[in-house]
Design goal:
Length: 278
């Protein structure tokens, strides 16, 4: 039987506002029936701190540190915690809620989509697997994560290698469409990451950073050989094709589509009103 064909877009490193605007535009176009389901790979220029839709900037983020590190800053349309996008492959998946292979619940759809990432890790020779919160305490901590740092907060169907989180994803559903995007860490600068958030005191910061080492890990910390961005792209593209049983066809944005994306970027994601609104 012929496999379903999805669009594949690799936009390379884009600005924070462009990256979020394109994910939003792809969701719009899919909801209008203009494009099939789509998988996109991208990076960030400059390196960027993105925060979840519901996070409070003044309470959680040290904007002076963000500026001092020369980082971009943007609020995502999805939930979740703060992510430093630097040495990573970022992906997004756009697919209708009505797609026959998509479960109705967020957590189950997350698992189905993340199957592609799981297979990608296998292509890199890594023993990744899904960890599910088992205890009531673990489940409660999903509802109220104590940390503002994404890779420090647990979530359902966590992708782990050697017991530590290797990919962080967030999902939103709008206009009948699922948008899931996330980070696959190649390397991580922990000190820089932890300098970007506010803490009650230095002792708490120290404790959280220490705990973080046991919870999260980057690919190149545990891979037998160094993985480049290009190798990661190849592995995860294959992974998505296998995990979702689809064929990916390269898609180029038209000048008209790019204009639409840049309009959203300017009107929403470059505005303080959006980025600092909570």
């Amino acid at each position: 039987m012929a496999k379903e064909v999805w669009n594949f877009i690799d936009t390379g490193a884009g600005s924070p506002s462009f990256n979020m605007a394109l994910d939003e535009a792809l969701l719009d176009w899919n909801s209008q029936g203009k494009i099939p389901p789509t998988i996109r790979f991208y990076g960030w220029n400059p390196a960027t701190l993105s925060i979840g839709y519901f996070q409070k900037v003044d309470k959680e983020i040290d904007m002076e540190a963000v500026k001092a590190n020369g980082l971009g800053f943007v609020r995502r349309p999805t939930g979740g915690r703060g992510v430093l996008h630097e040495h990573e492959l970022t992906y997004s998946v756009i697919v209708s809620e009505e797609h026959p292979d998509m479960p109705k619940t967020v957590t189950e759809a997350y698992r189905v989509i993340s199957e592609g990432i799981l297979k990608g890790f296998h292509h890199l020779g890594m023993e990744a697997y899904f960890a599910v919160p088992k205890t009531d305490e673990e489940r409660d901590s999903l509802k109220n994560p104590r940390s503002a740092v994404c890779f420090d907060a647990p979530s359902w169907y966590e992708l782990v290698v050697e017991g530590r989180k290797v990919a962080g994803s967030a999902q939103t559903r709008q206009k009948g469409v699922i948008l899931q995007h996330g980070s696959i860490l190649l390397d991580i600068e922990e000190d820089k990451l932890f300098s970007l958030f506010k803490y009650p005191n230095d002792r708490v910061k120290e404790r959280m950073q220490k705990a973080f080492k046991n919870k999260a890990v980057a690919i190149n910390e545990i891979s037998k050989q160094r993985v480049t961005l290009e190798q990661a792209k190849e592995a995860f593209k294959k992974g998505f094709e296998e995990g979702l049983n689809i064929e990916l066809k390269p898609y180029e944005l038209t000048a008209e589509e790019l204009e639409y994306v840049n309009k959203i970027a300017k009107e929403r994601y470059e505005h303080d009103e959006w980025n600092f609104k909570r």
